[in-house]
Every structure is written in structure tokens, then in C-alpha cells.
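Lab notebook page, bench 4
Experiment: in silico fold of construct C2
Operator: M.H.
Input chain length: 101 residues
Purpose: comparison with the prior construct
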Amino acid sequence: MVKADIVKQLASSLEMKDKDALFVVDSIVEAIKDVIVRDGRLEIRDFGVFQIKERKPRIGRNPKNKVSYPIPPHRVVTFKAGKQLRELHTPTADEGDDDDE
């Protein structure tokens, strides 16, 4: 799914124009980015946590020619899914056992 799909689904479910739905989606994405940049962390209950983490400097290696080079420290945005979101994708014990039938 891409942003255009989200816009269409939002417009359909709220019975609004695609243009208005695009504005809503863009506004939410900008608000999320602003909070992450400002605070370094955004927690959305039952969904997950976006967080900026510092990566330590390390030595990288080009697999083609085996040349090593330093990778400087940098910041990355990570996402950790919340419990309810994880449970949506975790099969229960009953779903994983098809051998009993």
C-alpha cells in the first residue's frame, strides 16, 4: 500500500474528496515528522513507537572488492510495533497447527 491508496481509502470511508483526504494525510505525516525531530520519540498507543537512535561508528566492507572503509556515527529513525499491532501478525497456536486435520 502506498500513500495514494491511503488517501483513497480515507476519502471513501469519510465520504470526502481525494484532495481533502490528501491534505489530511499530509498533515498527519508532517505532524509525525515534526514530533520525531523535535522530541526524538513519538508513541502512538496500541500502534507503536517511532524513535531516533544513534548508530555508533563502525567499519564497513564492500563485498565485491573486500575494501574496508569507516562508517561515521549517524542517527536513524526506528519503529517498534506496539503489542496490539504485533498480535495482529502473530499466528495463535491453533492457526499454526494444520497437521492435526
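Observations: Residues 14 and 21 are 9 Å apart (CA to CA). The radius of gyration is 20 Å.
Next step: discuss at group meeting.
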